[in-house]
Amino acid sequence: MNGYERIQAALHGERPDKTPVMLHSFMMAAREHNVTMEQYRNDPKLIAECFIASADKYHLDGILVDIDTATLAGAVGVRVDFPLDDPARTTIGNVNRLEDYIRLKPARVENYKYIQIWLEAVRLLKEYYKNEMYIRGNCDQAPFSLASMMRGMQNWMLDLMIGEEEQLRGLLEYCTDASTQFIQLMVQTGCDMVSNGDSPAGPELISPEMYVKYALPYEKKLVDAAHHTGVAYALHICGNTDVILDHMLLTGADAYDLDYKTDITKIVNTFHNRVTLIGNLDPSGVLALGTTASVKEKTLELLSLYKNSPRFILNSGCAIPPTTPSENLKMMIDTARNS
């Protein structure tokens, strides 16, 4: 099997010949290619080169193409800061009052420079690998997360408590349109999977009831949009998602990219042979700061829990820090390959 075939097998509940590996490693890929984040985010050819070099070095099965968590926000008018050697980040929202969403210009995300760079990088990678490597084009923020950037996190949390229902849903629909546009554009690159992150929708910030009411319906719309085009979909939420795992299944996503903070036993019991887990080693405490021995130990623990299910793709629980020792990453992958 090649990488594409391994990941396809895991997504369809079929046993691959080896554990498939697809890493959230864009910062490390850039660092190891001696490229700053400023250079990386501005050149699609350089982005592709970073991932190709990383895939060759670590013998990956899939590539998760990511740039930052602020691109879609920038495309809808949120102010973005661009550090030299860190991913871009939002600084202040662009919707001062919740009711101001009705004054927003219709989203046209294809006009934003960094959206086009992201799309071109994915297209180049798909063109290079064809069906040898599985290419996942991340599409930045899901609607709830994007709304939190447009309002600013503090304001958005207050909105959820005291805001008018019609206005909350109005802004979420606006964000859903923007997120869907990115997915539709990404699909045109030929990628094999699209995905979004919706970390502010996790239980560490809002209740499960609020997740069901204000995040899940809009996540499901993104999944439906991807499936309508025939492309697989993965959803990522940071933090401990124990209490919403059952709800997350209702989105209909093909795979869930979950944080190491979520109880792996609960993930296995909830997902098992229904959907695929992408994850979920601790990227900081284990991969970046651990020893090769601890990396091997934690990888074996994870693999043993999934030994009776083929629906598993090895990854970290979130983005891998750029300072992660190469030998730790190699140990994780070698352990999976030889187990």
Structure description:
By secondary structure, the chain is of the alpha/beta class. It has one domain (3-337): TIM Barrel, CATH 3.20.20. Helix content is 49%, strand content 14%. The chain has 16 helices and 10 strands. The chain has helices at residues 3-11, 26-32, 37-41, 44-58, 71-75, 113-129, 143-151, 153-162, 165-187, 208-214, 216-228, 245-249, 264-271, 283-288, 292-305, 326-337; strands spanning 22-23, 62-65, 79-81, 89-92, 134-141, 193-197, 232-237, 255-258, 276-281, 312-316. An 8-stranded parallel beta sheet has the order 1-2-5-6-7-8-9-10, with helices on both faces. A two-stranded antiparallel ribbon has the order 3-4. Strand 3 and strand 4 form a beta hairpin. The longest helix is centred in the middle third of the chain and has 23 residues, at 165-187. It is globular and about 55 Å long. The model has no long low-confidence stretch (mean pLDDT 97).
CATH topology: TIM Barrel
Main sheet summary: 8 strands, parallel
Give helix % range: 40-55%
* SSE topology string: HEHHHEHEEHEHHHEHHEHEHEHHEH
Count of β-strands: 10
Across the major sheet, the strand order is 1-2-5-6-7-8-9-10
What is the CATH class?
Alpha Beta
Architecture, CATH level 2?
Alpha-Beta Barrel
Instruction: Provide the number of structural domains.
Output: 1
Average pLDDT: 97
Task: Label the overall shape.
Answer: globular
Number of helices: 16
Structural class: alpha/beta
Spans with pLDDT under 50 lasting ≥5 residues?
A: none
Distance N to C terminus: 17 Å
How much of the sequence lies in strands comes to 5-15%
The gyration radius over C-alpha positions equals 19 Å
